[in-house]
Amino acid sequence: MRDQNRTPFFDAVQSYIAKNRAGLHMPGHMAGQGVHKRLKEFWGENVFLSDLTEVEGLDYLHRPIGVVKEAQELAAEAYGARDSFFLVNGSTVGNQAMILSTCAPNDRVIVQRNSHRSMYGALILNELRPIYLEAEEDRLLQFQTFPSKKTFARILRDHPEAKTVFLTNPNYFGISADIAYYVEKAHSAGRRILVDEAHGSHFHFHPDLPTSAVDAGADMVVQSTHKTLAGLTQTSMLHLGSRRVDRELVRTTLTMLESSSPSYLLITALDVARMQMAVNGRDLLQRAIDLAEDARHRINTIEGLFAPGRERSRSDAVYDVDLTKLTVHVSRIGLTGFQVEEILNEDYNVEIELSDLENILAFVTIGTRKEAVDAFIEALEDIARKRRGKSSSLTSPPPIPGIPEMVLFPFEAYYAKKERVRMEDSVGRIVAELVTPYPPGIPITVPGEMMTKESVEYMVYMRDHGADLQGIQDKTAHYVQVVKER
Q: Which residue among 11, 182, 183, 440 has its CA within the 20 to 30 Å range from the CA of 393?
């Protein structure tokens, strides 16, 4: 067992700074000497001193032989993986590296439909032919979770040609699948299984959280250290869990996809975040769980609001729940989640993670202050009180549309000649853009699919009720690109 108190990369950075060398190398600010005084006064000197590159003693992310190698080996042991790679381009690059290092161009690949848009980018980059796994829907909260076990078994049986499976678990709201079942089922059918676990980087470190895909034996797992732990934004990790993947191919794929000038600030943050969780993770997470559970109880005493917890688990749409995520169902007070988020921002100085038509979502992490949770709950109490007795003008949203017919593969539509049409006039046309309400970044239509009346109605409703439709060029979301007819 390695000493998880060690922070080899952070120590090497501090050691290099202490040498006070005459620097004649990148970055151009030269240890902060060229930085404008306003920024330097605000950020402080150590940020710029630590913003280093592959100087003597600090190793190189894409060919590690020293302190980066040791830091990644410590991470692999801490997370229970065979190998771990530090990522400085977020989980987006991890998802794409997983797919590009396990699939050849034109391969069939089984992918969970409600996956992050980065996965769809990988399908296009590698010219892959997807087979979609449709997810179940939590009808109360109006969002998708994960494919049913029956659907998963059927797709595996019907598509023996697809040797790789890509799943997303948990979803943005912390709803988790029985990931051990999916891993075992995929392996017994001779498939590799890749898991986007961006929102589960903390799971491994506390027994009251859902099972991590790494612990379940998945072949590759991506986790966003910055989302639920104490990494800086863009810090993530890619864990290898088996010999079914080629480690060297994964490394070279990351070299192609990631920056050749990785931020040493981000690598340092990953090194320290790993140490923090390996040494104190259980205690830190226990505090976060206790804080969230207390908040959930208090919210459920507010008339018109509902904050679901683990009591919703073991259903068709929900297997387990991340107790640190606070989902609050708000439609019973006659407001959309978008409206509640705006009110929290403008009237109460409270910033949450996201909102949708029916819900708002607040994160409770190892860094959350009780004062912030108290301010959040007091604001909700006041909003709900002011809404009592008021009528609602909300109409029921249309159902989440099913997966449209795939006429072209995503890469074929992406590279095809396109034209722009009004959203309402796109029915029956082949979509050439990824249309994605954001957050959480789950596509409604994918390039190559036939636009349906149901998809248009859903997207127009979302747009008109405050959702941001990303992936389309038209900023007003009134127009969408379709494949040009011959």
A: 440
